[in-house]
Structure formats: C-alpha cells, structure tokens
Amino acid sequence: MATAFTPCHVGKNCHPECGAAIVNQVNLELYASYVYMSMACYFDREDVALKHFNLFFLRQSNKEREHAEHLLGLQNQRACNLHLHNIPKPEEDNWGSSLRVLECALHLAKRVQQSLLSLHQVATEKHGHVCNFLKHHYVQEQAMFIQELGDHITNLHKLAAQEESLAESLSDKLSLGDSKN
C-alpha cells in the first residue's frame, strides 16, 4: 500500500507534520476497515460459513472505520483542510484458511499500531491534544486487539487437528464466540 501523502493545508491550529500524519493514519484505518470487511465476507461465504469469525471481523471493520471518522473530526476541529486518498483494495480475495486470515490480520494490526505510535510521537512533539486523544482512545485498544489476535492464532495452533476445518470450527465456536472485540 502506498503511504505517500500530501500534507494538509494548514489552518492556524494545525501543525503541517501532525496534520499529514493524521491523514496518513485515517487512510490506514480505512484500509484496515476494508481488509477486515473482506475477511468478514470470506467467512460469510456459503462454502466457509464460520459465523463467529465473520462477526469478529465485521466488528473490527466497524471499529477501524469509526477510528478514521474520529480522526477526521479531530482534523476538522484543528482547522485542517482534508486531502483524502484512494483506499487500495485488499491484497487477498480468497483468504484460504482461518489461520491465514488471522495471521494477515495480526500483520495489519501491527502495521496500524506502528503507524499510531509514529503519529503519537509526532503529536507529542507538535500537538499535545492529539497526543492525549491517541493515548486514551487508540494506542491501548490497538495493543489489546493485537494480543487478542495472537491468542486466537495460538488457539488454532493448539487445535492442530487432522482436518484444518475441524480446528477452524472449534476455534470459531470456542474462542471467537466469546470475543470482546
């Protein structure tokens, strides 16, 4: 995914570097939402039919979209003009297995976390309000999501049955059915 963005045109309350980093984060949050929606649709397919995986990724897709909306609102409060960019399509269409999906989701979640930490660093130096907003609303939540994905991956590895579909079905019911995400 391309991550080169033009900085926002700066209003009196918007530091250019901070504004550009927020736009960058918005784009990544929207991309993550798109990918998680693709994952949810994969699990909702008739030939896959794993309801709890579907719901897990639908909820995460909605959360990522909400994060983007909140960051856009923050940009508007800071008097920045927004210059949004195209959101690329997910790199996968046919995800293959629940383990592969969870591993891809973990990789993406870590990418979002790193971007959040970078934005937090810029905000620490340039804009305290944004820094506090991120710290209290996103950084911890993202770390918890990464931990949850890691736990689900561990559970699937532990369930390594003769048939992967048995492990997927058990994991779908036993761990994702009670997911807090």
Automatic annotation (TrEMBL):
<keyword id="KW-0408">Iron</keyword>
<dbReference type="InterPro" id="IPR009040">
    <property type="entry name" value="Ferritin-like_diiron"/>
</dbReference>
<feature type="binding site">
    <location>
        <position position="64"/>
    </location>
    <ligand>
        <name>Fe cation 1</name>
    </ligand>
</feature>
<dbReference type="GO" id="GO:0008198">
    <property type="term" value="F:ferrous iron binding"/>
</dbReference>
<dbReference type="GO" id="GO:0005764">
    <property type="term" value="C:lysosome"/>
</dbReference>
<comment type="similarity">
    <text>Belongs to the ferritin family.</text>
</comment>
<dbReference type="GO" id="GO:0008199">
    <property type="term" value="F:ferric iron binding"/>
</dbReference>
<keyword id="KW-0560">Oxidoreductase</keyword>
<protein>
    <recommendedName>
        <fullName>Ferritin</fullName>
    </recommendedName>
</protein>
<keyword id="KW-0409">Iron storage</keyword>
<feature type="binding site">
    <location>
        <position position="29"/>
    </location>
    <ligand>
        <name>Fe cation 1</name>
    </ligand>
</feature>
<feature type="binding site">
    <location>
        <position position="142"/>
    </location>
    <ligand>
        <name>Fe cation 2</name>
    </ligand>
</feature>
<keyword id="KW-0479">Metal-binding</keyword>
<dbReference type="GO" id="GO:0004322">
    <property type="term" value="F:ferroxidase activity"/>
</dbReference>
<dbReference type="GO" id="GO:0006826">
    <property type="term" value="P:iron ion transport"/>
</dbReference>
<dbReference type="InterPro" id="IPR008331">
    <property type="entry name" value="Ferritin_DPS_dom"/>
</dbReference>
<comment type="function">
    <text>Stores iron in a soluble, non-toxic, readily available form. Important for iron homeostasis. Iron is taken up in the ferrous form and deposited as ferric hydroxides after oxidation.</text>
</comment>
<dbReference type="InterPro" id="IPR009078">
    <property type="entry name" value="Ferritin-like_SF"/>
</dbReference>
<feature type="binding site">
    <location>
        <position position="67"/>
    </location>
    <ligand>
        <name>Fe cation 1</name>
    </ligand>
</feature>
<dbReference type="Pfam" id="PF00210">
    <property type="entry name" value="Ferritin"/>
</dbReference>
<dbReference type="GO" id="GO:0005776">
    <property type="term" value="C:autophagosome"/>
</dbReference>
<dbReference type="InterPro" id="IPR001519">
    <property type="entry name" value="Ferritin"/>
</dbReference>
<dbReference type="InterPro" id="IPR012347">
    <property type="entry name" value="Ferritin-like"/>
</dbReference>
<keyword id="KW-0458">Lysosome</keyword>
<feature type="domain" description="Ferritin-like diiron">
    <location>
        <begin position="12"/>
        <end position="160"/>
    </location>
</feature>
<comment type="subunit">
    <text>Oligomer of 24 subunits. There are two types of subunits: L (light) chain and H (heavy) chain. The major chain can be light or heavy, depending on the species and tissue type. The functional molecule forms a roughly spherical shell with a diameter of 12 nm and contains a central cavity into which the insoluble mineral iron core is deposited. Interacts with NCOA4; NCOA4 promotes targeting of the iron-binding ferritin complex to autolysosomes following starvation or iron depletion.</text>
</comment>
<dbReference type="GO" id="GO:0006879">
    <property type="term" value="P:intracellular iron ion homeostasis"/>
</dbReference>
<comment type="function">
    <text>Stores iron in a soluble, non-toxic, readily available form. Important for iron homeostasis. Has ferroxidase activity. Iron is taken up in the ferrous form and deposited as ferric hydroxides after oxidation. Also plays a role in delivery of iron to cells. Mediates iron uptake in capsule cells of the developing kidney. Delivery to lysosomes is mediated by the cargo receptor NCOA4 for autophagic degradation and release of iron.</text>
</comment>
